[in-house]
Write a structure and sequence with these properties.
Blueprint: H1 5-17, H2 23-29, H3 41-44, E1 47-58, E2 61-69, E3 80-81, E4 84-86, H4 93-105, E5 112-117, E6 121-123, E7 128-137, E8 150-157, E9 167-174, E10 182-191, E11 194-196, H5 198-211
Parallel strand pairs: 1-7
Antiparallel strand pairs: 1-2, 1-4, 2-3, 2-8, 5-7, 6-7, 9-10, 10-11
């Protein structure tokens, strides 16, 4: 089913204000997270971060943006993710998501409307607590990706999330750059031949479950 973005916006806004799928949706894409859901985050003192799931209309399709991060000496090197990063100074988490989107993609954030946020996601390898926001922009004329942080920009049709068998399984290394790394079979979204898993897959799983009755 093709939905026009202007018709989907009020649906998303309303659902973001209701009880979210949360952990049930998260575990679908990351069953190995069941243990981490029991952690006392106050004891962990996680670094606060936020991301932006940005929707826009392109031709006759609703799209959202993923990025492939550049290779670097860090936990999320080369991974597929949403634009986002660590909270700075006295900015709000919403401001963090917008700032990071501007820095990483060169988008005019003045034209972005934030519709709400999804459930927080804790990332043990980096000790990040991610606050995922959902936003919308009327159109994007071009991207100006930051070459230091962004290897490539990936435009995904929202309808792809609802394709049958879009979720696959693969043996991947969890916590690759930690002392507790392990190889396990994990679910992932196969989006435009990209393996989307981990925190990004978890966020998309909740967004998918939230809208499943509309597709």
């Amino acid at each position: 089913m093709n939905l026009a973005l202007n018709k989907l916006i009020p649906v998303i806004t309303t659902k973001l204000q209701e009880t979210l799928p949360g952990k049930k949706a998260h575990i679908k894409l990351a069953p190995y997270r069941q243990a981490t859901e029991l952690l006392n985050l106050k004891d962990k003192n996680p670094t606060l971060a936020s991301t932006l799931l940005l929707l826009y209309q392109k031709n006759d399709k609703i799209k959202f943006i993923l990025i492939q991060r550049t290779e670097y000496n860090g936990n999320h090197s080369g991974q597929i993710s949403f634009p986002g990063g660590k909270k700075e100074n006295n900015e709000t988490l919403k401001q963090t998501a917008l700032r990071e989107t501007k820095e990483e993609l060169g988008i005019d954030i003045d034209n972005i409307d934030i519709l709400g946020k999804l459930s927080n996601v804790y990332v043990p390898p980096s000790n990040f607590l991610i606050h995922p926001f959902v936003g919308v922009i009327e159109k994007i004329n071009s991207f100006k990706p930051c070459p230091i942080e962004v290897e490539s920009v990936i435009e995904v049709s929202l309808s792809d999330l609802f394709i049958k068998d879009i979720v696959k399984n693969k043996v991947l290394t969890v916590g690759e750059k930690t002392n507790n790394s392990m190889k396990i079979k994990v679910p992932y979204f196969d989006l435009k031949n990209n393996i989307v898993w981990g925190a990004t897959g978890v966020i998309l799983s909740e967004f998918r479950d939230m809208l499943i009755d509309k597709y």
